[in-house]
Amino acid sequence: MTPHLPLDADGVAVKAADRKHVFHSWSAQELIDPLAVAGAEGSYFWDYDGNRYLDFSSQLVNTNIGHQHPEVVAAVQEQAGRLCTLAPGFAVDVRSEAARLIAERTPGDLDKVFFTNGGAEAVENAVRMARLHTGRPKVLSAYRSYHGATSTAINLTGDPRRWPSDTGAAGVVHFWGPFLYRSPFHAATEAEECERALRHLQDTIAFEGPASIAAIILETVPGTAGIMVPPAGYLAGVRELCDRYGIVFILDEVMAGFGRTGKWFAAEHWGVTPDLITFAKGVNSGYVPLGGVAISGAIAETFARRPYPGGLTYSGHPLACAAAVATIATMEEEGVVEHAAHLGQDVLGPGLRALAERHPSVGDVRGLGTFWALELVRDRDTREPLVPYNAAGADNAPMAEFAAACKASGLWPFVNMNRVHVVPPCTVTEEEAKEGLALLDEALSVADRHTTAG
Q1: Which residues pair with 325 in a beta bridge?
Q2: How far apart are CA 344 and CA 75, in angstroms?
């Protein structure tokens, strides 16, 4: 399609107002240069100069049904004309329907839904529920993880964004999850990695004191930390440990949920039912902020006659719930979840593995559905990352050059540390996916120049 563009001067004005008034997240404010975006549709967005980008980031891995899906836009418009907002204490048809549709798709008896404004608040409330349900203080989470930027969520997070806000007294204990490519357990096979990771977790529980641990929280498939698909048996093993010690098992599906891995929830791949699931992002593709916690019967019963001490002014906001209802209905009608599974199996997976064969900078390929990562390295044999852990400035130059090459060709990438994540909308067409792979192929030649083979 041809973008409908305002005058070039409008883009300049948008940029100027942004730099004058908008305080950006995770950024040194004087060192950033945000792109002024004029519009978006489907798998693409564009700037005021008419430069169009294939969105291989899904923004923040949340536009699962793409940009501006007409059914969802119409649903939000219709709801706005009927009832824009109402406090959480009322029963509202669209809120009830959103909860029903979500509960139908969660595993097991996770049939109650507590709505939040996003993923971090979902994690905050899931942990609060677990602590109150068990009467215990501690929560275990993995080092390679991201759970959000609010107080508890950032302490649970394993990546360096935690460091400036880590209180050291938040009741959080970190452990190593499985990751064969960079195994902390010196494993040679997926089976060894699984067995040793579970043994490590069991030892952590034993030395921390099982009776002090309220919950273990895991991203079903860790997202920002590297899209590390867990080995067969690992999640089931964690479930068994939680059952053994009376620990609440929380799966964070904020990024992996709602079709991203080719299932409604990634937990379906392994047949595991947690006690709580956190969700956000893909539940309505971020059209209006929405997140939540899906709650098991046992934990819901804890608060049947005991007030739950938590709430949000915008919990279950009607506009957000209308977007969720329309998103889920659209995904069903258009077979979006099945399409994502097909893309992963038949297009993205084979295509990315073919890129790895051609480019010495690609050390590892991993993923499911429309949820993939390429691990970029200087040396395939030693697996030295293309840039150091948490690199910045000159140390990060190779990845910065690679990202710039992607954007110059019309591909908007999701880049984190030494990885590029391939996470287009779940609705991306085969043709668009192949276009993105071709653009990645070109950009990887820039990364190749920084390898020992370059």
Answers
A1: none
A2: 29
Whole-number pLDDT of residue 9 = 63
Q: Which residues lie closer than 8 Å to 400 by C-beta, 6 or more apart? A: none
Which value, to the nearest 10 degrees, does the dihedral of the CA atoms of residues 37, 259, 324, 301 take? -140
Copy the structure tokens of residue 414: 């999701």
Backbone angles phi, psi at 124, to 5 degrees: -55, -45
- Please give the backbone phi and psi of residue 416, each rounded to the nearest 5 degrees, phi first: -145, 125
Q: What is the DSSP letter of 260?
A: T
- 334 DSSP assignment: H
Q: How far apart are the C-alpha atoms of 42 and 431, rounded to whole Å?
A: 13
Q: Quote the CA–CA distance of 7 and 254 in Å, as a whole number.
A: 37
**Integer Rg of the chain from CA:** 22
Angstrom distance (rounded) from CA 288 to CA 318: 10
% of the chain with per-residue pLDDT over 90: 96
β-pairing, 138-142 vs 414-416, is unpaired
Q: Which residues of 68-98 are buried (b: 16+ CB within 10 A; e: fewer)?
A: ebeebeebbeebeeeeeeeeeeeebebbebb
pLDDT digits (tens, 9 = 90+) for 193-218: 999 999 999 999 999 999 999 999 99
Cα dist from 170 to 69, 153, 328, whole Å: 41, 10, 36
Residue 2 is predicted with a pLDDT of 47
State both tokens at 406: 């992607």
The phi and psi torsions of 53 (rounded to 5 degrees) equal: -125, 130
Residue 427, token pair as written in the block: 């609705």
Coil, helix or strand for 415?
A: strand
**Biggest alpha carbon–alpha carbon distance for the chain:** 66
β-sheet bridge partners, residue 242: none
Residues with Cβ within 8 Å of residue 324, at least 6 apart in sequence: 98, 101, 102, 283, 284, 290
Is the Cα torsion angle 222, 226, 232, 234 positive or negative in sign? negative
The CA distance from 365 to 367, in Å, is: 7
Please check the confidence at residue 5 and state whether its pLDDT lies above 90. Answer: no
Cα separation, 332 vs 82, whole angstroms: 25
pLDDT at 433 over 60: yes
For 272, how many CA atoms within 13 A lie in the half-sphere containing its CB? Answer: 30
State pTM to two decimals: 0.96
The set of long-range contacts for 34-37, using a CB threshold of 8 Å and a minimum separation of 24, is: 36/11, 36/12
d(CA 304, CA 132): 13
